[in-house]
Amino acid sequence: MRIGSLVIVVWLIIGVVASPQRGYFKGNNTSCAKTGTIVVTVLAGGLNYVGVNPKVHDCKIPQPSK
């Protein structure tokens, strides 16, 4: 159980390291798609360094009811 937890934590840390390397935190442009791209990059972890480039192009935020 400890080994599995350690592998997951290291996997996510690798994804966190990949996000700023790809320049996702530059600029003031914040959007749902940019946030989604950062999240999927973190979840992709080590796959970022073997050619996977996950991106979210479109997302819809639920609007409050009137």
Distance between the termini: 48 Å
- CA-based gyration radius: 14 Å
Uncertain segments of ≥5 residues (pLDDT<50)? none
Structural class by SSE content: mainly alpha
* Major sheet: none
Mean pLDDT: 88
Number of H- or I-type helical stretches: 2
The ordered string of helix (H) and strand (E) elements is HH
Overview of the molecule:
With 66 residues, the protein is an all-alpha fold. The chain has helices at residues 2-21, 32-44. The protein is globular, with a radius of gyration of 14 Å.
Question: What is the element layout, followed by pairings?
Answer:
Layout: H1 2-21, H2 32-44
Helix pairs in contact: 1-2
Short description:
With 66 residues, this protein is mainly α. The chain has 2 helices and no strands.
Q: Which terms summarize this structure?
A:
mainly alpha, globular, single chain
